[in-house]
């Protein structure tokens, strides 16, 4: 599991009084950063050498998130395929689950934009972050 | 169908050179505004009387969207249930489909936050925006 | 003058009930796009050949902007120097001025990032957009 | 001084390769949160009781900020008037100053939206955060 703490910003709320729905994908994106490091240990997070692309994203909104309290984002790898993987994420506040999401990410060559198999060495390192969503 | 034109902003691109993935849900949200008008014809888009909530959202990214060219958002109602509905949306650029999404929206009382049946009068008006995704 | 219409998004409001202050710079940035076209008529808004950089920005908030109503952004060139210029902008809603801002922009070579004189041919074209803020 | 660490998000970069200029006001807003706590010690950051409003904001961009490295935001109170104050902020990365800004904030009654004197008890607490920009 990867773990990230988010401090909500005033501008991330909306006039309905809670965190706007479109903000959750931004927090989840932020919490997936360690995956890029795992995928390219030597790249130093250089976005020009980014080799993971988002093919699909799903978010389920269980409860509205509040301003003024930290949000915990828990990130798991829930499936590893040949060249793609599923990343399952949870947003927690006040020790309650508020939103969940799944991102389907594809490994690709950053120059040709063609999909590439995920190397076995990376798959092994992914193991400790593995979890199936309940 | 509801139709919206979006002019991408520099700040909506990211260092990979295209529109950032987390921006598409913001454009789709914007293009769903007419639904609220349909749901509460007299509310004048007052967010304190907002009576639709997003329960789930899915986005499929087919091709990266570019800065410098208008994006067309097409919004369809693809399912109407008792108190919820599916809104299917497409983002087009250069006459090519770049991203699609589905939002599951629930009709609720804006004070009690309890789900409410969608009135028949509204269902009838929804008819002309109805379409099943291919 | 350059003229742009903005349709506020739900996610651009905040829990205080109006458009969040940090959104105005995003709208102003969007309304400055035609300046890049003026500066490099052949570049087709390619961000890799962007040759104007923001050195300083000031925003004055007179009245809070509302969701549900179009916002008009008026953009003027208020000063042209050797390699820099001031861009003065206004945000109007309901025919009332709500916010103003000034952006100091520097013309530079997009490869070396060194400042460059603004060509006389461009200065001449800027003339019709010229106006001093009152 | 108030101190905040920001972890840049991919979506906060733009196609020019660095953090987009319009993001800095969002980070500065986030770093001003402790001021609201100072102003209303009992309000628990409830946005409906928010009693500080932004009248004016200035940002100077010295160097473009990078993705992949933490940003430190330092927040000082640089002037306290009768009902308003200036908040001076700095964004640091790699121990170098990258951007500075000043926010003019007005103390007001959150119901009537009329300006209110800043109480002496609050002014005293502000003392330890006081600093004049160099």
Structure in words:
Four copies of one chain form a homotetramer. The first copy, chain A, has 134 residues and is an alpha+beta fold. Chain A has three helices and five strands, in the order βααββββα. The first copy, chain A, has a five-stranded antiparallel β-sheet. In chain A, a hairpin with a 3-residue loop joins strand 3 (71-80) and strand 4 (84-93). Chain A is elongated. The two termini of chain A are 14 Å apart. Chains in contact: A-B, A-C, A-D, B-C, B-D, C-D. Chains A and B meet through helix 1 and strand 2 of A and helix 1 and strand 2 of B. Strand 2 of chain C pairs antiparallel with strand 2 of chain D.
Number of helices of chain A: 3
Largest sheet of chain A: 5 strands, antiparallel
Strand content of chain A: 35-45%
Shape of chain A: elongated
Low-confidence stretches of chain A: none
Structural class computed from helices and strand pairing of chain A: alpha+beta
Strands of chain A, total number: 5
Write down the oligomeric state: homotetramer
Please tag this protein with its features.
homotetramer; 134 residues; alpha+beta; 3 helices; 5 strands; 35% strand
Task: Describe what is shown at a glance.
4 copies of one chain form a homotetramer. With 134 residues, the first copy, chain A, is α+β, with helices and mostly antiparallel strands. Helices cover 16% and strands 35% of the residues of chain A.
Strands, helices and their partners?
The structure is a homotetramer of 134-residue chains.
Chain A: E1 2-6, H1 24-31, H2 33-39, E2 52-61, E3 71-80, E4 84-93, E5 96-107, H3 120-126
